[in-house]
Amino acid sequence: MKLLNDCGPALAFLVACSVKVTGLLVVAWMLAIALRSQSAALRHRAWAVGILGSLALPIFAPLLPAWHLAALTAAASWRPAGAMAAHAKSVSLPTMFVNAIVDNASAVSPLFGKLAAILLLMWLVGFFIVALKLVGGLGRLVRASTQAKPLLQDDWLRLAAEFSGSLKIARRVRLLQCANPLAMPITWGGLRPVVILPASASDWPETRRRMVLFHELTHIARYDWLLQICAELARCFYWFHPLSWIAAGNLRHESERACDDAVLNSGIAASDYATQLLDLARTLENSSRIWATALAVARPSTLERRFIAMLNPSINRNQMSRGAGLFTVFAALCFLLPLATLRLPAQDLSSGFGGTVRDVNGSGAKNATVIITNRKLNATVMTVSDADGNFTFKSLPAGEYEMKVVKAGFAMYRASGLELSGESSQNITLEPAAAGEDRSALPGLEPGAKPPLPLDSGVEATKILTRVTPTYPAAAKAARVQGAVTLDAIIGIDGKLRALRVRNADIDPELARAAVESVSQWRYRPTLLNHEPIEIATTVVVNFTLMQ
């Protein structure tokens, strides 16, 4: 059961990352479209930062301070403390009656846990399938490299040294030659890059040697293979997301286009380059199993678009400057960091919060209303203790809370500074109401506060904006327990219920809890007195009746 409970936050984290990645990759896609008249190198960078950002999101999100989405709503409705105190008057509303609905919704929570576990299992299966394919491709590259021999011909080594110097490649590049005379030239490796050439490369003309080697070394200078592996890793994590596959494909295509532009800028004619590429694609073997994790110079699936681009003299072929590269990284971080800190409502949940409410004799206090408030999120949730005084809250956003416990005949219990980030509990002892204190005072009223004012013509009638109908608890329904729960409530100046109390303390605790947890979600249009919002007191009676 604990495993099912743990699946909820994990699934929420995965869904939140997917939602954020959608926005990130959509921005990268739109940016690439906006840059269609610019160089392929710049478009490649746009896709690269989007993919790297998608990998960084799951890492940054737990490390950075949380920015809750609900805080935006709280900021819009915030009022100065003085203004709230100035209107802390109360008036009474007529009693409202509502009937609970008989439903089997009590099975929703365990069903959701099972559904979350199934979805996470599906994600893990897809992740391992894509990851095994990636690992298999890397293994084939390693095997191909170990079986190849170093290419020691002077003309190849001379070209490699010349191009490495012009491209400012500080890493040592290994030139290998495999036994297959028809193998496609491929490049792979980050810190120790490797270029694998076919056995027939020894007989290539000078033009083809220069074209192929400059293309492959440009990949190395641009760290294209490392970026493509990052794209493959992103596809492993987000294998279910179509944009991750689109981004990886576009990244590969733009990297080939950027290297083509570098070759053309080196002085090779576009027509000669296209002819050589076509000849390579026609005569050499096309091993898609190797291409999955390597960069090949003449991948057939991209040749047509590359031919169109390289034969178009009006296309921008400039390589990206260092300043432009740094600016794109800075802009990406400015977008990524706030996105990583954003917490969606289903995210950042504590494992649970509960405890026990007792009286001074140590007995469990039944039907005590427990109210916890997160001032930062402007959120208040309530529940009721059971027959033994136990209470519990589930799926609370982590943060700092204030807690109140109210019960007729007892003084209000208060606690502040409760930090909820994991599973925690709180034991509470209620003191009897002080001598002379009104034992029937409304919940949430400060000691010495004025009693509710009567309705008069200056009060605009309050209307319910949102009503959540209580659901009949499954345990009470099975035991054929019926009854009416009478709730005393105070509605704040923002239309939210800030306190509820069960008046008839002997009612079944399951019925009381269902009534409090649903009615606490009601929202009202604020009541105005002389055009100023005021707090009001009301009574709600929830009838739990079973069909005979």
Brief account:
With 548 residues, this protein is α+β, with helices and mostly antiparallel strands. The protein is built from 15 helices and 22 strands. It is elongated, with a radius of gyration of 34 Å.
Given the helix and strand composition, which structural class is it?
alpha+beta
Mean pLDDT, as a whole number? 80
Share in helix:
40-55%
Q: Kindly report how far apart the N and C termini lie.
A: 35 Å
Number of domains: 2
How would a crystallographer describe the biggest sheet?
6 strands, mixed
- Tell how many strands the DSSP assignment holds: 22
The general outline is elongated
Share of residues in strands? 15-25%
Rounded radius of gyration (Å): 34 Å
Query: What's the oligomerization state?
Result: single chain
Poorly predicted segments: 1-5, 70-90, 104-108, 453-458
Question: What are the defining features of this structure?
Answer:
19% strand, 548 residues, 5-stranded mixed β-sheet, 6-stranded mixed β-sheet, Immunoglobulin-like, 22 strands, 2 domains, alpha+beta
Description of the structure:
The protein is an alpha+beta fold and 548 residues long. The protein folds into two domains: 81-102 and 349-544, Sandwich (Immunoglobulin-like), CATH 2.60.40.1120; 117-340, no CATH class. The protein has helices at residues 2-34, 40-63, 70-76, 81-86, 108-147, 154-166, 206-221, 224-237, 242-265, 270-283, 288-291, 300-310, 322-341, 474-478, 509-519; strands spanning 67-68, 90-92, 96-99, 149-150, 174-177, 186-188, 194-197, 295-296, 342-343, 353-358, 369-374, 379-384, 390-393, 399-406, 413-420, 424-429, 464-466, 483-491, 497-502, 523-524, 527-529, 532-544. The protein is elongated, with a radius of gyration of 34 Å. The model is unreliable at 1-5, 70-90, 104-108 and 453-458 (pLDDT under 50).
